[in-house]
Amino acid sequence: MMAAVKNFDSVLAKEQLDLITKEIGPKALAHEPPLISWRYGDVERGFINRFWQQTVEPDLNRTTNGNELVAKLPDEWFSCLIRLMAVKD
After folding, report:
1. 68 within 8 A of 17, measured Cβ to Cβ
2. pTM exceeds 0.90 for this model
3. Continuous segment of H or E residues that includes residue 13
4. Each residue of 24-60: pLDDT tens digit?
């Protein structure tokens, strides 16, 4: 899902978000012992809802139903990280 977001593929990101929230998260929480903390996997209160759902769903709404993405600009923070990694001592 993160790769789809980074590549501006909002349809794929939404499909993967739905897979996480409807299948993977509930199965991981129902497992005994739980494979992930409710803080991450809980659909209503967890990390996925708080951060990724709030990113993926608005992106999908803005780039579908006749709307289109005009320009793909790199993530500013990711670009900064790449530059920092390229710096040699």
Report:
1. no
2. no
3. helix 10-19
4. 888 888 889 888 776 665 666 677 777 788 888 888 8
